[in-house]
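Order emerges. One example.
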Amino acid sequence: MGSSDEQLDELLALRSIYDDDQVFTAAVRESGGAEGTASVHVQISRPFEVAAIQSEDARHCVDYMPPIVLTFSLPHDYPSVNPPSFTLTCPWLTEAQLSRLGEELLQMWTNNSGSVILFSWIGFLQNDTLTFLDIGSPLSLPGCQTLRIVLEYDQNKRSDVFDRELFNCQVCLGDMPGSACIQFMECGHVFCRTCLRNFFELYIADGAIDLLKCPEDKCNTKAHPNQVKELVSDALFERYDRLMFQLSLDTMNDIVYCPRKGCGSPVVVEGDGTMGSCAECRHTFCLRCQMAYHGLARCRSDLDDIFAEDDIAEYDIEAMDDPSTLSNADDESEENSEWDAVRYTVHRCPRVKCGNVATVEKKTPTRACCSTCLYQFCVHCKRAFHGVAFCQFKSGRANTIRTIYKYGSDLDKLELEKKYGKKLLQKFIEEHSSKEWLKLNSKTCPKCRTHVQKMDGCNKMTCSKCRCYFCWLCLEELSKDRPYKHYTDKNTPCYNAVNRVPEEEDDVELWD
């Protein structure tokens, strides 16, 4: 058999042996001989770690390394007389290492002179490169750029392999190719895109983004934002991104929100001061009373509620909280509900260090303007005038108005409805009922202060907002790694009380 026939047979055999993982190309020249390339994937033991020399502490585990590219040219008298000419290239091997490999390939030809050699060369590069060069894990790469090339290749190769495999979705129980599935990288669980898309869309629409995690039972791997963006629409992802940002801010102790209406931007609290400054609207305010910053002047949160010229202060609140103690106030309604006309036209300016006379405009009976500092305020809540928006009372005054409206005489109720509006009064009643219900049926998370209700189970609770673990009995925040240690420590008041029912819950009536 002539040299050309042996070359053709060898090239045909190599094309049939190596699949897409071993890319092999070759072409026969008209002048004789042939040329081509072989991309040889080096076999590595897993796990295999790589790191840049500049930062060897930052190691990365890879499954695939970029191939060694063997570029060859076969002379017309190969293999009977001359060996192939060749070059070796590889991004993660040094020039010295590639030179050593080249010398070994030539030595292999010398030992097998007169026989086809390409198959032996490819096998050596694939199986014996690491052993020959004494390379092990972790492998120190010559630079950060080389590390980036290796990691990108590993990621792309993993993605190609994943797309060709079949997986069983544990939600719909269907067998799907990897190209129709999503894998959670941290835990490795795989689900089909359709199931995950429905899952993500439901929770994003409900605002429960903290529940976007692996659907596998008892798995807490969080969904990566890139996975969410890949599955949901642009509008839903924008909502998800906004809610994630809001959730991050809500869990920060040094973040408050600008109290100016129409702004509400997050403000970073610096140190232990009482001043907040909004970078968005440039509003400077007191962190305690939420009013414009007043420097060393006494904070309004320390002052008693201003009830100037207001009949509310005349009521016995403690008596009114008990309807049985109310007397028939209808007989005395005329005397007790007489309003001085001056009270509707003249008010005292609520600004600190002012307190001068303010008059009410006839066209806008709820707006008063101070004749000295020109401050315009609401005559009901004494805050800056807010137009048709609801008044924002302090909790103490709101409860006073609520009590009068709930237990007072019909004339008092009518007068309050004229003054504040029926919608606002109903709002006070509803808010109070909600607060009372929460007070009786829930407790607050020690980390983010979110209300948490216990339905059943043990006393180790998980906050639905910040995912903090805490004890239902003493409200102490528990360790993320060992939350039940709190109940096995004899030095805690909750020792051996993981399933203890609090005394106030002993008499709770259960549904039949």
Q: What stands out?
A: Residues 107 and 113 are 10 Å apart (CA to CA). DSSP finds 14 helices and 23 strands in the chain.
